[in-house]
Design a protein that fits this description.
Helix content: 40-55%
Number of strands: 9
Strand content: 5-15%
Distance between the termini: 56 Å
CATH topology of the largest domain: Rossmann fold
CATH class of the largest domain: Alpha Beta
Strand order of the largest sheet: 1-3-2-4-5
Radius of gyration: 22 Å
Bound molecules: iron/sulfur cluster
Amino acid sequence: MQTSNNKINKTASVKNNTGFDNNHPPEPKLIDSCVHCGFCLSTCPSYRVIGKEMDSPRGRIYLMDAINEEEIALNKSTVQHFDSCLGCLACLTTCPSGVEYDKLIAATRHQVTRNYARSFGDTVIRKLIFSLFPYPDRLRILLFPLLVYQKLGLSKFFRATKLLDNISPRLAAMESILPEITFQSFQDNLPDVIPAQGKKRYRVGVILGCVQRLFFSPVNEATVRVLTANGCEVVIPKSQSCCAALPEHQGETEQAKTIAKHMIDSFAGTGADYVIINAAGCGHTLKKYDDILADDSEYKKKAKDFAAKVRDAQEFLVDVGLTAKLFPLSDQSLNVVYQDACHLLHGQKISIQPRQLLKQIPGVSLKEPVDAAICCGSAGVYNMLEPEVAEELGKQKVRNLLSTGADLIASPNPGCSLQIKKHLQENIIDIMHPMELLDYAIRGKKL
Ligand code: SF4
Ligand code: SF4
């Protein structure tokens, strides 16, 4: 690719030695597959909000190429454009040339982590996130102080006064999506093995997630009940930790590898036919373990075998077919809008299956929002690291969901649910995981 394109940010074009290292830089072959047509710009959420070429897929590909060619440096001016990418992968779906932007941005993020010195404040907030979020045991220790914090009304106080926004917008963003801590958050009461109801069809492993198991434990419980009601024996290895999505998406190479290996070891010997996950971002990463551990001679094969067994819960249920009878969720018909999570829709190409399942529930009528394929701004920890862009995307998403007139939002990812909940504010509309809706329908429980 010619990198003399005049659209490259000239402030970034100082040639120096600070660039990518030789450890898997963004592949020139993949970069060259971009024909610069610009089709991807219209569906790129960062470009839509920021409005600059360098915050679009095409612009970032120019930057990667120019850094590869040592024409510009990996510095504050260039890194800001990589940081502004949500990793939503909408450009993968839109690109007519099949440019593998996911591989390009993943390689770039790992390079940035290794070769760019972030500011003190940026380093501290990232260290805080990466030393806490992927470790459910550490997060669990924080639950009690957070419960006290909420019970004392401090959360309401900070949200109402916006005091934290002036001190640290990122801290304020973290606070603003903190879910309500309940006594259920302290329980971890799913047994190791749960028998299938009726004739056993499969033995499946279930991944609990880190945020999911603490703040959305009813979703995990619902998933297990739906699976067992449909003839699955469920096995839950308690040694499992995080899936590695957060460190992998932010280029924390070694941390992601260590966590992925731990997950593989946790499920070794369980005899599971499939490994089921109910969170979109986690599923996408779990299916990429063979890429994450491609250079590890000991785990390469194990990672490939593990990844081949991973299924999103909705994908799995449509594949094997529901055997449990479903009952109406309400005495009246129920309008449900399904919120596409990017790592399901663009990352795993799963969009029909959740809709098929929801439509099987008697009385459910599905609504489609405008811009269903555009990110809600959550994007893992993006809403904490880039709060301004995330804020705008969150508002747009909620506006589009509400304008369908739906009674309820079905959201298949904890991050999206938190982001949407934040922006729903005073709008009284429930948000539930599709697995919870199926669970209610199987048990004949009304909303
Ligand atoms: S749509 Fe694809 S080929 Fe066209 S500019 Fe975007 S990434 Fe490049
Ligand atoms: S991953 Fe999303 S935010 Fe990043 S370039 Fe692609 S469409 Fe834009």
